[in-house]
Known about the structure:
The radius of gyration is 19 Å and the shape is elongated. It has helices spanning about 1-5, 15-25, 30-45, 50-65, 70-90. By secondary structure, the protein is an all-alpha fold. The longest helix is centred in the last third of the chain and has 21 residues, at about 70-90.
Amino acid sequence: SRALFASMVPKGEEATLFAIYGLTDKGSSWLGPLIAGAIAQATGNVRLTFVYLLAMIVFSMYLLKSVDQAQGIADASRGNQVEGAEEEDS
Protein backbone atom coordinates (compact mmCIF):
# COMPACT_ATOMS: atom_id res chain seq x y z
CA SER A 1 0.00 0.00 0.00
CA ARG A 2 2.96 2.35 0.53
CA ALA A 3 4.05 2.01 -3.11
CA LEU A 4 0.49 2.65 -4.26
CA PHE A 5 0.28 5.68 -2.00
CA ALA A 6 3.63 6.99 -3.29
CA SER A 7 2.49 6.77 -6.89
CA MET A 8 -0.53 8.94 -6.14
CA VAL A 9 1.15 11.70 -4.14
CA PRO A 10 1.50 15.01 -5.99
CA LYS A 11 5.06 16.32 -6.26
CA GLY A 12 5.89 18.75 -3.51
CA GLU A 13 3.40 17.16 -1.10
CA GLU A 14 5.47 14.08 -0.29
CA ALA A 15 6.69 15.17 3.15
CA THR A 16 3.27 16.26 4.37
CA LEU A 17 1.36 13.25 3.09
CA PHE A 18 3.96 10.68 4.16
CA ALA A 19 4.01 12.24 7.64
CA ILE A 20 0.25 11.71 7.85
CA TYR A 21 0.69 8.19 6.45
CA GLY A 22 3.30 7.44 9.10
CA LEU A 23 1.12 8.75 11.91
CA THR A 24 -1.87 6.72 10.84
CA ASP A 25 0.27 3.64 10.23
CA LYS A 26 2.05 3.72 13.59
CA GLY A 27 -0.85 5.24 15.45
CA SER A 28 -3.22 2.48 14.44
CA SER A 29 -0.82 -0.37 15.23
CA TRP A 30 -2.20 -0.55 18.78
CA LEU A 31 -5.86 -0.50 17.75
CA GLY A 32 -6.04 -4.01 16.24
CA PRO A 33 -4.51 -5.79 19.23
CA LEU A 34 -6.70 -3.73 21.58
CA ILE A 35 -9.89 -4.76 19.76
CA ALA A 36 -8.78 -8.39 19.44
CA GLY A 37 -7.96 -8.48 23.15
CA ALA A 38 -11.31 -6.92 24.02
CA ILE A 39 -13.13 -9.50 21.92
CA ALA A 40 -11.19 -12.35 23.53
CA GLN A 41 -11.78 -11.01 27.03
CA ALA A 42 -15.48 -10.25 26.50
CA THR A 43 -16.31 -13.59 24.93
CA GLY A 44 -13.75 -15.82 26.62
CA ASN A 45 -13.07 -17.32 23.19
CA VAL A 46 -9.82 -16.45 21.44
CA ARG A 47 -11.04 -18.02 18.22
CA LEU A 48 -13.57 -15.23 17.73
CA THR A 49 -10.71 -12.77 17.30
CA PHE A 50 -9.95 -14.53 14.02
CA VAL A 51 -13.39 -13.51 12.75
CA TYR A 52 -12.44 -9.90 13.48
CA LEU A 53 -9.08 -10.34 11.75
CA LEU A 54 -10.70 -11.91 8.69
CA ALA A 55 -13.25 -9.09 8.52
CA MET A 56 -10.49 -6.47 8.64
CA ILE A 57 -8.50 -8.23 5.91
CA VAL A 58 -11.55 -8.51 3.64
CA PHE A 59 -12.48 -4.86 4.30
CA SER A 60 -8.92 -3.71 3.51
CA MET A 61 -8.86 -5.74 0.31
CA TYR A 62 -12.17 -4.22 -0.73
CA LEU A 63 -10.86 -0.69 -0.09
CA LEU A 64 -7.67 -1.29 -2.05
CA LYS A 65 -9.58 -2.93 -4.90
CA SER A 66 -11.91 0.05 -5.13
CA VAL A 67 -9.01 2.46 -5.70
CA ASP A 68 -8.56 3.42 -9.35
CA GLN A 69 -4.76 3.51 -9.54
CA ALA A 70 -4.55 4.98 -13.03
CA GLN A 71 -7.00 7.76 -12.12
CA GLY A 72 -5.13 8.52 -8.90
CA ILE A 73 -1.80 8.78 -10.67
CA ALA A 74 -3.36 10.95 -13.38
CA ASP A 75 -4.97 13.21 -10.76
CA ALA A 76 -1.67 13.57 -8.91
CA SER A 77 0.19 14.59 -12.07
CA ARG A 78 -2.69 16.84 -13.17
CA GLY A 79 -2.60 18.49 -9.75
CA ASN A 80 1.04 19.32 -10.31
CA GLN A 81 0.22 20.95 -13.64
CA VAL A 82 -2.67 22.97 -12.19
CA GLU A 83 -0.54 24.22 -9.30
CA GLY A 84 2.22 25.22 -11.71
CA ALA A 85 -0.23 27.14 -13.90
CA GLU A 86 -1.63 29.00 -10.88
CA GLU A 87 1.87 30.01 -9.75
CA GLU A 88 2.69 31.36 -13.23
CA ASP A 89 -0.53 33.42 -13.28
CA SER A 90 0.32 35.13 -9.96
